[in-house]
Design brief:
Elements: E1 2-12, H1 18-28, E2 32-37, E3 43-50, H2 51-63, E4 69-78, E5 87-88
Parallel strand pairs: 2-5
Antiparallel strand pairs: 1-3, 1-4, 2-3
Length: about 90
């Protein structure tokens, strides 16, 4: 079953290539959706895929990019379905 999750990541997640690594992970997992920075210093992700694919992405978000320091990851299911390849906005 395909679903979409919204993921909010806080910590040291901007200026550390977090979006680039998230995009690479999303594409490797064949997910659709996007990742973007927020003005409050957090990163926001919307990803569409199978539960297994999304669980892998969420697990990756808890680790983050090599120079990041993830403090919190909040995940919620949303009703949007993305069809475009995973991208940075």
């Amino acid at each position: 079953m395909i679903k979409t999750v919204a993921i909010e990541i806080t910590g040291k997640v901007q200026g550390v290539f977090f979006r680039k690594f998230t995009q690479q992970t999303g594409r490797r997992l064949n997910l659709c959706g996007f990742v973007r920075n927020r003005s409050d210093g957090s990163v926001y992700v919307e990803a569409t895929g199978s539960e297994l694919q999304l669980n892998e992405l969420v697990a990756w978000c808890h680790k983050g990019s090599p120079m990041s320091l993830v403090r919190q990851v909040v995940v919620r299911e949303i009703s949007v379905i993305h069809n475009e390849p995973f991208q940075i906005l």
